[in-house]
Amino acid sequence: MQEPENKPSSLKTSRIIILFATFIMMLTGGFLVYLLQPQFEQLHLERMQSTWGFYFIVFSMALLGYKLLYFLFNVVQYFRYKPVESVTDQELPTCTVIVPAYNEGHLVYDTLLSLVASDYPAEKLQILVFDDGSKDDTWDWMKKAKAALGDRVSIYQQPKNMGKRHALYRGFKMGSGDVFVTVDSDSVVKADTLRNLVSPFVVNENCGAVAGNVLVLNNDKAIIPKMLNVSFVLSFEFMRSAQSAMGSVLCTPGALSAYRREAVFNCLEDWINQTFNGQPSDIGEDRAMTNMIMKQGYHILFQRNSYVLTNVPEKYKGLYKMFIRWGRSNVRENLMMAKFVFKKFRPEASRFGTRLIFFDQSLNMLLTYPLLLLMLVMIVMHPLLFISSALFGILLASSFSVFFYAKRYNLSESLWAYSYSFLFTFGLFWITPYAIATASRRGWLTRG
């Protein structure tokens, strides 16, 4: 009985130590930047006196100016954004919720309980759950949910493990709703989540897909989830809010998304048969569906008032595998998006915002290897200047995330943005270049 009591105390101590160490290192970086000003000025002078150095400084200033303008543009879009309020029960469309499950154990039971407890008319809600050849007791937990919830849920087994995309495909083909909702089997929705999520389809006939607002469910169990929770808030409540104001959310997340039935069936066969470099696509099903619906001219929106809490990796290995999968999907779908984004894919509305988002994504990818090379050169030639500027840069760059989270939720939790940036800068910087180089590789990586 002693271990459960010690574990939370040990975790709390670890969190305090990590936050304290993060601040010490950032403040040390700031002090070193001040102390090493003569060396920084000498390096700057040497660059100005060489042709390549001069062009490098000009390019760096131009890039910094663009990034600042792009950030301000997103701030403006964020303040333009307003979530759609829930429509009445009578106006709500029929809805099919599809839950694919693989080796989730008891988590799928909690997911189904939360869905059935939704404030959504039962006669308009169909819940389909698919066990994708799990090797654990997931099917047993699905049967327990069926016994407890009765006709509110329908459970099925795939003939073998075929991948998440195929489980969703079966759900799309079987579903009868006017709107499809996909929910990950390790996620829990709030009571008003579903009605808020599907309401945009009622008030906006051009809406083809809606992204839910993802928070971390297991953020009290480990340190990495604490960091990711702050990161998710910035990614969803800031970036997706800004993208939604332009009708161009790039990715409707697997944890919680909704799709107009007609839009899904317009691209369903292309989606299930999608390939990359001659191989069937078994990752990035959410980003691919988003792209294919956007290509039809539909708006892709975000509902900040539609919450889902999902489990995330608690260890470094699981984290980097998840990021590699996301990175590979990002590479693939950016290439797909390039085929239509500069065409008249949305004749009735402005396409400027969508193209700007795509340009920024593509620019980040194009700069990946040059920036990696520059980092390696700086480490070899000026290690102290690099470390000090990187640490001080984390303090500056992450302060907006801290402010945003503190404004939306609370100050104490917001400080994890600094620790997350430290982890990303020094422990995950290799993810994007590796994902680009291995974009053709298949495999979910984190399924087990």
TrEMBL record:
Domain of life of the native organism: Bacteria
Cellular component GO terms held in the UniProt record: plasma membrane
SUPFAM superfamilies attached to this UniProt entry: Nucleotide-diphospho-sugar transferases (SSF53448)
This protein's UniProt keywords: Cell membrane, Glycosyltransferase, Membrane, Transferase, Transmembrane, Transmembrane helix
Places the protein is found: Cell membrane
A UniProt-annotated Pfam family: Glyco_tranf_2_3
MF terms in GO: hyaluronan synthase activity
Gene Ontology biological process: extracellular matrix assembly; hyaluronan biosynthetic process
Cited InterPro entries: Nucleotide-diphossugar_trans
Membrane-crossing residue ranges in chain numbering: 16-36, 52-73, 356-379, 385-405, 417-437
First-listed, main subcellular location of the protein, grouped into a coarse class: membrane
UniProt-recorded name of the protein: Glycosyl transferase family 2
Lineage, broadest ranks: Bacteria, Pseudomonadati, Bacteroidota, Flavobacteriia, Flavobacteriales
